[in-house]
Amino acid sequence: MCIVQSSTIITRTMTEPALPPPTPQAATLVTLAALADKHTFIEYPLATPFTCASFQVDELVYVSTSTGKVKKSHPADDTSNGTSTGRLFARGKVVDIAPPQYPGRVKIEYRDGSAYHANPSRLTPQLFRPNAGSAQVGVIVTAKTDHYRRLARTQITSTDIVLEIGCDLGITVDSIADIVGPSNVIGVDKSHDSIQIAKDSYPRCRFVEMDIFHSRDDLIALAADCTKVLIDINGNRLLPAVVEALRLVLEGCHKVDLVIVKSVEMHRERCKK
Questions:
Q1: Which CATH number fits domain 48-68+75-125: 3.30.70.20, 2.102.10.10, 2.30.30.140, 3.10.580.10?
Q2: What superkingdom does the record give (predicted)?
């Protein structure tokens, strides 16, 4: 800006006011967006129902039992929202999709050789299928405990090595041990009392007391061979802590191909996209 005074021109340099630093919440959302740019995020339940097109021949799926006709089902059990319903029954292999005799059905073969033509709504596929040679990791985000535990049952296979961050009393770790074996799953939690209860309740499983935000190197070492990581740090914990836990896993655990996160806030933010 120029000001004229008695034929003398005085030049003042106008400087832009400094922008305020971003709020912690804004910085967290930027970090979350950056992680989503690098990896595949999936919000569960899905926005669309499972159909025959959701499945591939030779893939393993989890079959649920029929719940029968219920007049007033809970919205979370509505197959139109992309989640299978009914009690989880057994894992099977897809051998045919929509054969002429059974249009709209998926043929499943069980380990004992028996077969069943299932409605797609009774099946849960692998929601993330990693590409060979890709560094991209799948991240499934859910807000509900029952969905989180259902994902733990259906997305983990017998060949996986698993870590749960925020294992609390050990219920999910024990369930995963049925799939991968007790030696291939570890639960960590920062609560001394929770870890002691978990050890007493499920002595076959391994539990470690750890605050991951103060023991980053220990976490990375513990998860060095893990292929699946589950994060449930109290479910409703503030978003910055959940995003930081996810960032630690995605940047430090190089063998992981899938992370399952239970977080009300992260699920809400992702569903805005």
A1: 2.30.30.140
A2: Eukaryota
